[in-house]
Amino acid sequence: MGKMVKLGLILAIFCVISAGGLAYVYMMTQPKIDQNAQLALERSKQEVMPASGKGMAVIVEPQGYGGKVKMMVGVDESGRVSGVKILEHRETPGLGAQIVTSKFLGQFKGKTIADKLEVEAITGASISSRAVAAGVKEALEKVKTKK
Amino acid sequence: MNLWKDFNQGIIKENPVLRLMIGLCPTLAVSNNATNALGMSVAVAFVLICSNWVVALIRKITPDEIRIPIFIIVISTFVTISDYIMHAYYPDLYAALGVFVPLIVVNCIILGRAEAFAYRNPVLNSILDGVGMSLGFALALVSIGVIREALGAGSVFGITLFNPAVAATIMILPPGAFITIGFIMAFLNKAEKKVQ
């Protein structure tokens, strides 16, 4: 019985030391982590918004092949797509992961809600390509209902 | 002499991935390009060297019955520290490695070295063992990463070698990891037989 308490106490001491150390590192790094996230968001916004700065940027998460595709779509005042950027995805490397290329995403530029979003899909990644197209459509609808 | 041996054995002779065949999970998962492989190697090296150091330092006051939970506390503390630091200062690398950084906790190389080496040896030997094993892990991971990225994406460390359209995509998918690691092991075994 006494031994059990002793061992438990030793383990508890180790845990306290570890927690203290982690709390310190957390306090040191957390502001920087938040700042990075904010910066990345701002940068993406600048990329997808029209040069005039007027319009909206919406974030949508269509279902891709390997999970949700988190993407930001910029829409200008006349309801045309001004830019698309993929923020996070888990698509297959080498195939679906090519949705981040400007060659693929550029195809959405200038599309409106009236357009059929028929784009040239990436070879071997039709599900990922369709997911992005669905995301753009969803974003356009979101902008329309907000107006 | 002994110190040199402790340092040396992890690199080729007891290479954790290619000889002891431990730590295969992160090896297969993040070796799809050379940059990720290198980033993972650095994170594992940090955790392994620090945990070997601390485990050797506290081995005299560690009761035998609860040594494993204590190892885990030490290891997970360093993993979390490396996770925070990478998230704060290398966000791109952090995004690429994703879930595999926290999973270093269950990388059997680290717990294995704590139990088999650091718990039984002095601090300096344990640190050297950590450095050697980390180099061995990095050597294996980066060579697999370079081969897979070159054949599968036509580039090395992100620098394009040839048109990626003619690359064999399978090499950067999971089967490519098994194929590459199999060939490297076969080659090493053959080389060893020749030496003998």
Average residue pLDDT of chain A: 87
The radius of gyration computed from the alpha-carbon positions of chain B, rounded to a whole number of angstroms, is 18 Å
Poorly predicted ranges of chain A: none
Terminus-to-terminus distance of chain B: 23 Å
Principal-axes shape call of chain A:
elongated
Rg from Cα of chain A: 23 Å
The H-and-E topology of chain B, N to C, reads as: HHHHHHHEEH
**Count of helical stretches of chain B:** 8
Number of helices of chain A: 3
Percent helix of chain B, as a range, is 55-70%
Question: How do the helices and strands follow one another from N- to C-terminus of chain A?
Answer: HEEEHH
List segments of chain B where confidence is low: pLDDT < 50 over at least 5 consecutive residues. none
- Please give the CATH class of the largest domain in chain A: Alpha Beta
> Strand order within the widest sheet of chain A?
1-2-3
Question: Per DSSP, what share of the residues of chain B sits in E-state strands of 2 or more residues?
Answer: under 5%
